[in-house]
Amino acid sequence: MSIEAPKGTHDVLPREWPAWQRVLDEAERLCAAYGYRRIVTPTFEETELFARSSGEASDIVSKEMYSFEDRGERSLTLRPEGTAQVCRAYAEHGLQREPQPVKTWLVAPMFRYAKPQKGRYREFWQLNVEAIGCEDPAVDAELIALQDAWLKALGLETTLLLNSIGDRACRPAYLERLEAWLDEHSSELDAEARHKRETSSLRVFDTKNPELAALLEGAPTIGDALCAECREHFEAVKRYLDACGVAYELAPRLVRGLDYYTRTTFEFVAPGLGAQDTVSAGGRYDYLVETIGGPPTPAVGFASGIERIVLSLEEQGEHFEHPAIDVFFVCEPDAPRERVLALMTALRAQGRSCETDFAGRSLKGQLTQAQRLGANLIVIAAAGQATLRRSGKPDETMSYEMLEEELA
Ligand code: HAM
Fold first, then answer.
1. Is the distance from CB of 51 to CB of 61 less than 8 angstroms?
2. pLDDT in tens, 107-157
3. What average pLDDT is seen over the chain?
4. Nearest-atom index, ligand 1, CA of 309
5. Angle at which helices 137-153 and 17-33 cross, to 10°
6. Would you say the pTM of this structure is higher than 0.90?
7. What is the bridge-based pairing of β-strands 278-284 and 299-305?
8. Phi/psi of residue 106, nearest 5 degrees
9. C-beta 101 within 6 A of ligand 1
10. For residue 146, which of 34, 91, 326, 373 sits 20 to 30 Å off, Cα-Cα?
11. Taking a C-beta distance cutoff of 8 angstroms, is the pair 299, 131 a contact?
12. What gap in Å lies between CA 233 and CA 230, rounded to an integer?
């Protein structure tokens, strides 16, 4: 019986890598341009880290975590997201003593036990970008501008949805108003909304049920209930986004699936992805670091699903190829293979890419393979001499000494 990859996981095959490479190279370039530095965190953490930060009632904690006992010692969990980890590293290593904000980026696989569908996997990759230790709204705008620049550089058309969900000062009073409204309409709520109310009523807005969404159009929104500080912060974020030329749509009912958010929240959605159309999302999480035992530390960040970005590029008809190789060595049956291999080693040491045949192909088959790889130059190696073939030029046959000089 053959063994297949576990449900909800996937391979990235060599032929698929060029699209991934493009997406990740562009991310790395822009993170550097915006002053974010790379961080690497473990694949698993104490379960408590995610339980405390994401919220016990969030989908992630209540049903999606891959948790296991570490040989009977403690409960560990494969990371479902990166933000709590970066905050844990920040607090653990005293990064509050470094110049603030500490700006990091992380590319890593995440694990969530959810029903697999297009754009939703049980193991998926995220680009996770965080700015920890600063409440300046200009940082919120900077992070959003970074995503915008990245998605635009990739040629992706997306819509940015923007909201502010308040803080400790204004949210409790708003939640009371929302609760009262939900009480009035309790008979019209679906089972999921009733369940969400028990733990986090703000999350009733996070629904795919069109009837409920229509009903919630009439509910009070947090945007109308922001305190003066949150309103000012949000106004500044919008002003800075305008200044950076980033277009957005205000989405007063936008809430996120994790409990740690405060103030700014946002999502970039892409057409053509169906239900899983959010390619990048995040917001401010000013209380997370202290929730996990660190000092009070305002912070903001986002994460993007790499598979969803790659899928969107495919939806838009983008196609990426491996870079062409520099030299292909076609070997006649009597070619001095040792000499060819030595020459290839020398060329590769100079940073040039080369290939030869390892599959016993005929001369014609080797030439076809060279073309397939887009070789800029073909060397046809025979006993005692080699022929150099360049496009648009006549073939040149020469000794191996001359060939070495020519290639150098
Ligand atoms: P999130 O909204 O749970 O936020 O995930 C961020 C992005 O990861 C989503 O918008 C989506 O592109 C991708 N994603 C999520 N789940 C899956 C899945 N099952 N399969 C494929 N892609 C998926 C967070 O994770 C927060 N940590 C974001 C953040 C960073 N907030 C502040 N800093």
1. yes
2. 999 999 999 999 999 999 999 999 999 999 999 999 999 999 999 999 999
3. 94
4. 12
5. 150
6. yes
7. antiparallel
8. -145, 135
9. no
10. 91
11. yes
12. 5
